[in-house]
Amino acid sequence: MSEFIEIKVGEKSYQFPLISGTDGKKGIDMRGLHQKTGLISYDPGFFNTAYAVSRISRRDPDSGELQYRGYDVADLVQHSTFVETSYLLIYGKLPTEQQLKDFSLKLSKHSLIHEDMINLFDGFPGKGHPLAVLSVMVTSLSSYYPEEYEESLDKGIDHSARLLAKIRTIAAFSYKKIVGQPFVYPLDKHPYCTNFLYMLFSIPSKDYVPTEDIDRILNQLWILYADHEQNVSNTTVQVIGSTQANLFASISSAINALWGSREGGRQVAAVGLIEDILKSRKSVPEYFEKFKGDSERLFSNGFGHKAYEAKSKRAIVASKLFHDFYKKIRWVRSRKWLLKSKTICKMM
């Protein structure tokens, strides 16, 4: 039996149907609001508004849990890989062994970018912002693959797999541009995350191949941050994509949305603060003493997440991976940094 909610405007009453989300929570279908009442809804930031019904990912703000396609992210981190999780998010189900093999081959096959695109990197300043470079390069893919998404599927080519393959190469080349080193091309023999690290840190005189532990940690981190419900970037893709803009233009817009100081950019300030603390000769409590007076202000934006009432399980897993990473690397100062980072976590 259908359920309705009644809204009264003056002397008139109007009924609007209640609908259930994929998590079972109820919502009001307001699509007939203006037509029936002449009114519009006002909800800055979409804090009370869902623009779509989606089964891709779901977060529980009370428990801090996050799910992809019904699977707990913490379980995927332990038992999946980034490529397998990407398949799950894109196609809605975990791949069979053959499907995963075919998908991995697609990512290897499409990992190279057109040689003409290499020239685009020459137009950026050496210290250009990584997101500026990434956004432009992703948009430029539209020039090399102009066919529409559906048309590409008819040809047996999935643009989403193509973009996933190439964005890793673009990101690695962007880093090489910043540090002033020659580009390193991907190798088909390397798995997805291994290939990214290989392109980042190899130099002509010496190849870099990460240890199994470092490769595992990167896989797990990328699984954690693969999707996060109706966030700003996802919303931007939906809005731009609704105009029938191609996939590359839509994703480029999401990259730019991520840039803002209230979204991905806020983590930059948090990371900068953490790095400053780690490099400081002071203990962590001594470092924070300067924020007790009026001389300096602590901008804590970037610590925690406003979407959660409880501590995010994603943050808990990421913290464990962070400490695991510092235990694995062989830096002389890694132990000191590890101890300081634990103190920071307790104080924040």
Describe this structure in words.
This protein has 348 residues and is mainly alpha-helical. The chain folds into three domains: 4-65, Single Sheet (Rubrerythrin, domain 2); 70-259, Citrate Synthase, domain 1 (Orthogonal Bundle); 265-347, no CATH class. The chain has helices at 33-37, 73-79, 82-91, 97-109, 115-122, 130-144, 149-154, 159-179, 192-201, 212-224, 232-241, 247-259, 265-279, 284-288, 313-328, 334-347; strands at residues 4-9, 12-20, 26-28, 57-60, 65-68, 71-72. Strand 2 (12-20) and strand 3 (26-28) form a beta hairpin. Helix 11 (232-241) runs antiparallel to helix 12. The longest helix has 21 residues, at 159-179.
In short:
Its EC number is 2.3.3.16. By secondary structure, the protein is mainly α. The chain is built from 16 helices and six strands.
Show the helix and strand layout.
Elements: E1 4-9, E2 12-20, E3 26-28, H1 33-37, E4 57-60, E5 65-68, E6 71-72, H2 73-79, H3 82-91, H4 97-109, H5 115-122, H6 130-144, H7 149-154, H8 159-179, H9 192-201, H10 212-224, H11 232-241, H12 247-259, H13 265-279, H14 284-288, H15 313-328, H16 334-347
Antiparallel strand pairs: 1-2, 2-3, 4-5, 5-6
Helix pairs in contact: 2-10, 3-10, 4-8, 6-8, 6-12, 8-9, 10-15, 11-12, 13-16
